[in-house]
Each structure stands twice: as C-alpha cells, then as structure tokens.
Amino acid sequence: MKLNVDSLVNKEREFIDFDLIDEVSNIEFSGIDYSLKSPVHISGRILRTGVNYKLKASVDFVLAGNCSRCLVDVDIPIEYNIDAYLMREEYDEGDYEDCDVFSIKGSTIDLLNLIDSTLSLNMPQRVLCSENCKGICSGCGVDLNFESCKCEDSIDIDDIDPRFAKLKELLK
Ligand SMILES: [Zn+2]
Ligand SMILES: [Zn+2]
C-alpha cells in the first residue's frame, strides 16, 4: 500500500487523490495480532505544502475480534479519518501538538505504516457482541447468555455433602 509522490516532489502537481484497497491478512496492534475480515481501504488526498505534505484520508476495514465479556467471535468495524502532516524536513514536535505528524523519506509513502501508527487512537475501547452481553461467570465458566450460573449448585453440594456424610455416620 504505497503511494508514489514523485509528481508532488518535482512540483508537477499540487495534490494527488488516491483510493487504494489492499488485502492484508493481519494487523498487529498492542502486541495482539488481529486477523482482517475485509481488505484495508484508504482514500483521500495528499497535498503539497512547501516541501512537506498534508494528508487527509479516510480508512475503513473490519477486524476479527472477540467480545470482551463472553469471548465469542465478533467483527470489529474500524472507520476513521487521518488528518496529518507528512514532513520531509526536520520539525519541532511542539509546533504540531494538536495534529498527527509523521516523518517521511524519499518519494514513497507507506500508507499501511500510517494506518498502523494511527490505529491505536481509533480502536474501540471495548468490544462487545451486544450491549446486553452477560459475559462468562468467573466462578463456573458458563456463558451466561445461554446458561444460568452453576456456582450456587456447586457451593451447596460442597456445603451439604460433608454434613450428609456425618448424618449418615450417625444413622449407622
Ligand atoms: Zn459477549
Ligand atoms: Zn457461576
């Protein structure tokens, strides 16, 4: 997913509009390898500003994830915009506090790299199969969406069994 910006470098053009789709099998994020359920799609415009560039793009794709309560497989739709400066010259980060800035070298821009670096801010905090997901019981491990908790039962058996045993002893 690379964009050649030669025509901006040699000032042939002021901007380049692009619309790219790439089949990527997985994306790593926070040490977790996510499989993709769709190709990565990025479209937008890259604009020359002096020797640097301004990028406005929208990104969309679907990740395969798990519900954070019941762990069932869920699709995570990712959709966000990148609004960033791509700097060919040295820059002072303090001047760009409110926006994304990336250093670029040469006349090729690796868009997948930009997606990797911007994904963290655009990942949903928490993925749920549904707002009402009841999750998995931490005691007995049943999926509470489909079964009722068995913790009560097992505690009862543990409590009663020894007493039953004693009662049986007395009845002998
Ligand atoms: Zn769930
Ligand atoms: Zn339980």
From TrEMBL:
Name of one Pfam family that matches: YceD
InterPro entries cross-referenced by the UniProt entry: YceD
Name by which UniProt lists this protein: DUF177 domain-containing protein
Species this chain originates from: Peptostreptococcus canis
